[in-house]
């Protein structure tokens, strides 16, 4: 019978302090295109918890818990946080998430010198048109509506907008 030494308290703290996920994906849960991608990625994760999925459209979204990425930035461009705290955005998010799930080859061509500028430009166009293409108001309106809901939840409004 093999005996293993018992871990000391410092070792236990180290293990519990490190996240179980490798990347935290910030996504807009009110965007049908985003939800299609998230559902696909959740299936590929197969319950392993490699990717933590954070819905930024929830009023409970707190930037301090997610790399300091504020609501407006997260709504404007896709962001993710690596386990070491590094914040990535735009196509790099997809490269990292797909790599984490063992499908890095899908986005690998977006790093090639001739493909990268085109892929990056296409993503910028998509990000700029995502809200209108999904029939939603512009980012400024969405942000103002969210701020009003948050004020109401704090009890600082009267009959403006019902909290979610």
Question: What features would you describe in this structure?
Answer:
The chain has 164 residues and is α+β, with helices and mostly antiparallel strands. The chain has one domain. Helix content is 44%, strand content 10%. The chain is globular.
* Biggest β-sheet description: 4 strands, mixed
Q: How far apart are the first and last residues' alpha carbons, in Å?
A: 57 Å
Order of helices and strands: HEHEHEEHHH
Structural class: alpha+beta
Major sheet: order of its strands?
Answer: 2-1-3-4
Shape: globular
What percent of residues are in strands?
5-15%
The overall average pLDDT, rounded, is 88
Total strands: 4
Rg, alpha carbons: 19 Å
Number of helices: 6
Helix content percent band: 40-55%
Number of domains: 1
Low-confidence stretches: 1-16
Summarize the helices and strands and which ones pair or pack.
Blueprint: H1 9-17, E1 23-27, H2 32-45, E2 51-55, H3 71-76, E3 79-82, E4 87-89, H4 91-100, H5 116-133, H6 139-153
Parallel strand pairs: 1-2
Antiparallel strand pairs: 1-3, 3-4
Give a brief rundown of this model.
Helices cover 44% and strands 10% of the residues.
